[in-house]
Write a structure and sequence with these properties.
This is Amidohydrolase family protein. This protein has 302 residues and is an alpha/beta fold. Helix content is 37%, strand content 13%. It has an eight-stranded parallel beta sheet.
Length: 302
């Protein structure tokens, strides 16, 4: 089995840290519906157990919406866990680009040994028909304050982890072109949850335009469809289209565990990904399963 680097997963200790979305009532609206099953500790030992069959050689922690009052506390905690457990091997920390402390937080995060990138989910609209290319929604990628914080990433050398639905990818393209020195790593394939013909056409067109920016990479992850089992046949069209558009050298797989554990097992997702890309040349498979992540997050090459 070819080696795997999981480029996007979480761990959390609900006894040691505060995660408002996991611990507060009522639960927030969530794309997979009821997520109360996630209200349990999930640590490196749990990830290793879930990934036991997958030849996992390294992993990348993604910020888990820890208490925004102190984003650096999460980073320090992850470093402590990694020192004890050997996982994760790199991480994406949190920042709030439209806050007055954005530059200071970026600088502090960049000084942490495991931090390679930062995430701040930009504001947007919930439906493609509500999107307006001229919008200036506060906290969005078009927001002047948000963009003023974003510009500090280039100086830090950190990448930006972007989680946004596909109808906001035009904003992402403008961001990529305006700040070419900063790599954007699109999380979860741009969230193609709507698999209708119209939904897939909109997603494909948006991804095709975004692929023109050479500083954008894509995580083949988080593409579960609410209410449907994770099956290779269901996911193959979006995964292979992303690989066709961006090339294997800009694509990487990730589990989004334990969140995507609401929909499928770790093996179902990763075995499915291996099936989907099985007809690609072995060099492309290796890039997607580990090589792109190793290069992007500065991990030892498998």
């Amino acid at each position: 089995m070819l080696p795997l680097i999981d480029a996007h997963h979480h761990i959390w200790d609900l006894d040691a840290n505060r995660y408002p979305w996991l611990q507060d009532e009522p639960p927030i609206p969530f794309r997979y519906g009821d997520y109360r099953a996630l209200r349990r500790n999930y640590m490196p030992s749990d990830l290793r157990h879930d990934a036991a069959r997958q030849n996992l050689i390294a992993s990348v922690y993604m910020e888990a919406e820890h208490d925004p009052a102190d984003p650096l506390r999460e980073t320090r905690w992850v470093h402590d866990i990694a020192a004890r457990e050997g996982l994760p091997n790199a991480m994406a920390g949190a920042v709030f680009l439209d806050r007055a402390d954005a530059a200071a937080i970026i600088q502090a995060q960049a000084a942490m040994p495991l931090v390679r990138s930062l995430r701040h989910k930009p504001k947007g609209v919930a439906r493609p028909q509500d999107y307006d290319a001229g919008h200036r929604i506060p906290g969005s990628m078009r927001c002047p304050t948000w963009r003023a914080g974003y510009r500090w990433l280039a100086e830090s050398g950190l990448h930006f982890e972007l989680q946004t639905p596909w109808w906001h990818l035009g904003d992402a393209l403008a961001l990529a072109r305006d700040f070419p020195a900063t790599r954007i790593i699109l999380n979860h394939l741009g969230l193609p949850a709507d698999r209708s013909a119209e939904g897939l056409t909109g997603w494909r067109d948006a991804m095709a335009r975004l692929s023109d920016a050479p500083n954008v990479l894509v995580k083949l992850s988080g593409c579960c469809v609410p209410g449907r089992l994770w099956m290779a046949a269901l996911q193959a069209p979006v995964v292979l289209e992303a690989v066709r558009l961006f090339g294997a050298e800009r694509c990487m797989v990730a589990s989004n565990f334990p969140v995507d554990g609401l929909i499928a097992s770790y093996d179902a997702i990763m075995d499915g990904m291996r099936i989907i890309i099985a007809d690609l040349p072995e060099a492309a498979q290796r890039r997607i399963l580990s090589g792109t992540a190793a290069e992007t997050y500065r991990l030892p090459a498998p």
